[in-house]
User: Which sequence fits this backbone?
């Protein structure tokens, strides 16, 4: 019942319930109190305007209009409620009929309802008004019958939702009769939405009924409702407009009372759609992070296609998914970025491409692309449109479904290269051929839904090749593709990089993908680079415990097929609550007090290998890579962590003993979901900002991603 | 998918325009036409049965209690009410195919003549109102969506939401009465009633269009907002297209799919809405006719007008479905 009280806590709810209470009160009391006044004939004041005696004037018999409008409340509301009752009852019967009467009859009922709802309500009302006869009784029946199909459709929808549920199926298998299933199992579960909709329906019925009476087909004299009063008022509108307007206003207010109440109940019962209020952004000046100061201060390498210093992305509420990232990419270089989801890697890519939208905010001390300062408030569209190619994760959703592939490619040429429509399209076809799409002429004329996932990703790369890209940002380009297509797309990216001498920024949660393609890899954790190392060194010389854990979690040919997958204990950091000190400390087997209080600086060892860890290489070396054991980690959440790639559903239920795979072998067929994972992702604050990109990074139930091709084998 | 076609495969025929595979498209048209025909049959049957569902003798009711019995009997015979029901039905349907809707009991005129004389007034009103509603709603919805995206300009958003809810929930005939009272009676800017010249259209069109425009604008806004957050709009932004092109060429067609579905329903309900609005403005269209003939129990006329309204609605619904399939090749053509 708490939800009912919630109705009264919203302004809409208060307004609706108050108005509805007043309307109902008037319906009961007005005829008792003012009934005589409303019928009193005042021959001295026929069709009079507003006066002290008659506040809104009189009708053609000199009867006071205010009293008549008030008294008419009872008939108007009562008839509306009666018609609603008839209509909803009929609708309910029609709605559950498919469930009660079995398949064949049910389909017929559904078909009839479908035909009837195609007609506007007013047409049905008029039809039934003829059948049931002109007058109050006929009008009530007509309106009632006319709203039944719409309500029946609603009931059918709700019933269909509930009939699929397990408990209904169970009841059916148990041999419970259809009637009993409907009464005991289905109706109680759909009662709430039905009541809400009936309330809103009543508001509509009130208006329809007024319309019918207004047409002279409803309430007949000497009775009167609001519609009737309006009709009488309209004939005298030249002399006395208020006579027609006043009952109209009454109708609107009463209708609104029902509608608002219904909406408020619906709102209180449904999911709240109110978004959080915007908090002022905590602005962290660039350069104040340890990483920024440690980065090669001042040295500007002119061979860099992209130079990023102290990049930070923040969202309202103090959420900073990217907290000071510095790196550069040279022409022709392939740089990988790995990390769990929520580590800020995708957001880093988006902010480089200048695609982070409000309320997200990007700050950096330096952000240059091809020598151009992207932080300057200038129009970089042509540069970014032709020299930066972005390949997104999901090729299925990244093309506009209602535009031809060729047109989508050609746009770049049209807008940034000044090509004519024809030559832009010709180039698009040429580019499709360049990414080895067969029969490019025909393909260019097709819509995205006619392309397979791998083909779309090729086309997406081809789109990037419309210009002459200096940098290709590929954000999980193969995650949504199956394994065989993955390697083709990666090869294509490699080929393009070599041919164009373009730089490649490859973002992946898959260490092995990055290791295959890139020469250097950035390891990100909690919005920060924790290690920057050559991919050759990943297996031999990784100096951050997190990098080691990531690498260890990748099964290789030597991994026993029956061994459960290795995992990283604990869970990723919630970007809304980044702990003090090293963000990885809580999951790190060798963390000490300093790690938990003081944030390590990303330091260059002189060879370009950067690590942010307080421990010496020798200390980390004790964590032997790729072998089990040795890491007795106190996992903050106990057991139940899991490693999965998106959607594959793998997980290992361990016992909190570290990276080692001490599960019982059966562990990874069942997910350890009650482990408290779900408590992290949401509530982070910035998933409510409505920012699609942020939402994706911080997707609910933040999982540790250490996906590798070997998993296919493991299955 | 066809991407795995080996290179040696025979060259496929040139793709059809619109890129819709012929088989599915044909099946869709057939299915949709079938539904239209079934609905039309239901409509015709309902309109036929109406006169038989009326309590008592419809002719006696139409001519009044004082009419001489022989006149009533003659009229009943003329209407064919003495024949077996099936004969009457076949007769009715047969005449329909020849465009014969019978004869008015009251005026003795052919129902089809009265309808063809009055239909233009109603159709022009409904179409004009629909055009106005769409022309106002789509730019407004798009503009508000773009302006209030991501929690910007909260006040604009609230004003828009409030106003559109209120305007959308006021029935058209009440708007009509208010417009007449203020703009015609008080200010005298427009004619109070009747159909004479362009100015006489202004108030009825506004009365009909304002509610649907408000509802439609809300839908457009919501659809636009969800489309603007999609991956493919991000792709378009990554291409650095001008924002006008992103909003209008990339986002709008995707937002308009749902809008059009609702717009079609609105057009259908607008056709019905003319009944009330015509009575407010004494508009010489079908709406006035239907109410008048219900009141005077002129059943052949009621049958005819209900039939015409129904057919218009069904045809509009079908056209909307077809238009939807053309705009968005994915939608509706799927098997359902």
Assistant:
């Amino acid at each position: 019942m708490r939800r009912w009280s919630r109705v009264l806590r919203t302004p809409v709810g208060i307004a609706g319930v108050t108005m509805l209470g007043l309307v109902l009160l008037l319906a009961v009391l007005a005829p008792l109190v003012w009934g005589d006044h409303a019928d009193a004939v005042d021959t001295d004041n026929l069709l009079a305007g507003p006066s002290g005696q008659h506040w809104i004037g009189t009708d053609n018999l000199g009867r006071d209009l205010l009293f008549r409008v008030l008294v008419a409340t009872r008939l108007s509301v009562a008839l509306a409620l009666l018609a609603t009752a008839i209509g909803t009852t009929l609708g309910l019967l029609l709605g559950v009929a498919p469930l009660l009467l079995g398949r064949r009859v049910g389909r017929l009922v559904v078909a009839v309802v479908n035909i009837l709802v195609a007609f506007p309500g007013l047409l049905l009302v008029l039809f039934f008004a003829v059948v049931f006869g002109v007058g109050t009784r006929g009008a009530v029946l007509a309106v009632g019958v006319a709203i039944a199909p719409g309500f029946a459709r609603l009931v059918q929808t709700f019933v269909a939702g509930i009939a699929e549920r397990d408990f209904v199926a169970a009841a059916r298998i148990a041999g419970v009769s259809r009637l009993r299933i409907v009464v005991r199992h289905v109706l109680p579960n759909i009662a709430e939405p039905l009541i809400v909709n009936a309330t809103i329906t009543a508001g509509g019925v009130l208006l329809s009924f007024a319309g019918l009476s207004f047409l002279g087909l409803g309430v007949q004299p000497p009775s009167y409702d609001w519609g009737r009063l309006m009709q009488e008022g309209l004939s005298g509108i030249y002399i006395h407009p208020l006579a027609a307007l006043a009952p109209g206003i009454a109708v609107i207010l009463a209708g609104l009372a029902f509608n608002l109440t219904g909406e408020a109940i619906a709102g209180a019962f449904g999911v709240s759609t109110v978004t959080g209020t915007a908090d002022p952004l905590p602005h962290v000046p660039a350069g104040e992070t340890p990483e920024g100061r440690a980065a090669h201060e001042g040295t500007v390498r002119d061979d860099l296609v992209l130079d990023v210093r102290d990049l930070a992305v923040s969202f309202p509420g103090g959420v900073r998914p990217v907290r000071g990232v510095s790196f550069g990419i040279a022409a022709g270089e392939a740089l990988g970025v790995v990390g769990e989801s929520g580590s800020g890697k995708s957001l880093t890519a988006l902010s480089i491409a200048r695609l982070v939208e409000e309320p997200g905010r990007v700050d950096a001390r330096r952000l240059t692309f091809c020598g151009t300062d992207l932080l300057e408030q200038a129009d970089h569209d042509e540069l970014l449109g032709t020299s930066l190619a972005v390949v997104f994760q999901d090729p299925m959703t990244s093309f506009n479904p209602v535009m031809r592939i060729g047109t989508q490619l050609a746009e770049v040429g049209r807008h940034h290269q000044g090509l004519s429509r024809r030559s832009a399209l010709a180039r698009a076809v040429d580019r499709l051929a360049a990414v080895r799409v067969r029969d490019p002429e025909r393909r260019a004329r097709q819509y995205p839904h006619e392309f397979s996932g791998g083909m779309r990703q090729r086309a997406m790369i081809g789109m990037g090749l419309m210009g002459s890209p200096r940098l290709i940002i590929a954000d999980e380009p193969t995650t949504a593709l199956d394994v065989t297509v993955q390697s083709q797309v990666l090869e294509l990216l490699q080929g393009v990089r070599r041919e164009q001498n373009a730089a490649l920024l490859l973002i992946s949660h898959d260490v092995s993908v990055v290791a295959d393609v890139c020469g250097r890899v950035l390891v990100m954790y909690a919005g920060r680079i924790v290690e920057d190392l050559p991919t050759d060194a990943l297996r031999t010389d990784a100096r951050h415990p997190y990098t080691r854990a990531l690498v260890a979690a990748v099964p290789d040919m030597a991994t026993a097929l029956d061994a459960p997958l290795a995992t990283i204990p604990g869970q990723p950091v919630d970007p809304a609550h980044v702990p003090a000190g090293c963000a990885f400390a809580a999951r790190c087997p060798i963390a000490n007090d300093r790690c938990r209080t003081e944030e390590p600086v990303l330091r260059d060892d002189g060879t370009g290998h950067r690590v942010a860890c307080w421990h010496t290489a020798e200390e980390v070396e004790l964590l032997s890579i790729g072998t089990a054991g040795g890491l007795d980690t106190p996992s903050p959440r106990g057991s139940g962590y899991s490693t999965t790639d998106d959607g594959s559903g793998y997980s290992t239920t361990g016992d909190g003993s570290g990276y080692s795979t001490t599960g019982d072998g059966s562990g990874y067929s069942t997910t350890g979901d009650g482990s408290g994972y779900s408590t992290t992702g949401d509530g982070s604050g910035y998933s409510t900002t409505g920012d699609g990109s942020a939402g994706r990074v911080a997707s609910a139930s933040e999982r540790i991603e250490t996906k590798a091709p070997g998993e296919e084998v493991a299955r | 998918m066809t991407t795995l076609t080996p290179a040696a495969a025979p060259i496929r025929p040139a793709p059809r325009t619109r890129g819709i595979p012929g088989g599915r498209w044909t099946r869709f048209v057939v299915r949709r036409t079938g539904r239209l025909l079934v609905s039309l049959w239901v409509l015709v049957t309902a309109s036929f049965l109406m006169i038989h569902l009326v309590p008592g003798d419809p002719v006696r009711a139409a001519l009044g209690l004082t009419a001489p019995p022989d006149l009533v009997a003659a009229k009943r015979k003329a209407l064919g009410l003495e024949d077996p029901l099936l004969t009457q039905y076949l007769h009715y349907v047969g005449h329909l195919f020849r465009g014969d809707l019978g004869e008015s009991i009251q005026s003795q005129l052919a129902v089809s003549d009265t309808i063809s004389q009055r239909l233009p007034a109603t159709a022009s009103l409904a179409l004009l109102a629909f055009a106005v509603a769409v022309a106002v709603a789509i730019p407004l919805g798009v503009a508000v969506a773009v302006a209030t995206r991501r929690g910007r300009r909260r006040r604009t958003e609230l004003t828009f939401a409030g106003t559109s809810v209120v305007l959308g929930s006021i029935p058209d005939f009440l708007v009509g009465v208010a417009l007449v009272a203020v703009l015609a009676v008080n200010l005298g800017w427009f004619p109070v009633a009747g159909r004479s010249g362009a100015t006489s259209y202004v108030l009825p069109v506004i009365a009909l269009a304002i509610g649907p425009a408000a509802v439609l604008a809300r839908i457009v806004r919501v659809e636009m907002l969800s489309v603007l957050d999609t991956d493919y709009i991000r792709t378009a932004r990554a291409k650095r297209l001008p924002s006008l092109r992103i909003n209008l060429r990339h986002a709008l067609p995707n937002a308009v799919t749902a809008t059009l579905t609702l717009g079609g329903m609105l057009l259908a309900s607008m056709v019905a809405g003319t009944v009330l609005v015509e009575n407010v403005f004494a508009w010489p269209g079908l709406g006035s006719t239907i109410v008048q003939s219900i009141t005077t129990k002129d059943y052949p006329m009621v049958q005819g007008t209900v039939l015409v309204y129904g057919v218009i609605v069904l045809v509009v619904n079908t056209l909307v479905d077809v238009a939807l399939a053309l705009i968005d090749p994915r939608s509706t053509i799927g098997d359902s």
